[in-house]
Amino acid sequence: MSEESFTNWSMGILLTGLIIFMGFIIWDLGKKSGAGKTGMVALFLVLGFGVMGFVLKNVLVEFMLK
Q: In whole angstroms, what is the distance from residue 38 CA to residue 55 CA?
């Protein structure tokens, strides 16, 4: 396995794990703060947009390079 191949695999796996972990952190933050359903939705939307922007940027860069 080449270094480039290993890097691509590990970045994909580890970034997916990080995004899932960040989702857990958002959920835990909402639970500990006593946010209701509306508060949880607001937390996931607002904080999730940052993660979505990061993922979307990577997808757009891949399409622009091809």
A: 25
Residue 15's CB is within 10 A of a number of other CB atoms, namely 14
List CB contacts of 48: < 8 A, sequence separation 6 or more.
23, 26
Token pair 């979505």 is at which residue? 52
Estimate the share of the chain in helix, then strand, then coil, as percent rounded to the nearest 5: 90, 0, 10
Other CB atoms within a 10 A radius of the CB of residue 30 amount to 19
- Amino acid identity, residue 27? W
- Per-residue pLDDT tens digits for 1-57: 888 888 888 888 998 898 899 889 888 988 898 888 898 898 888 888 888 888 888
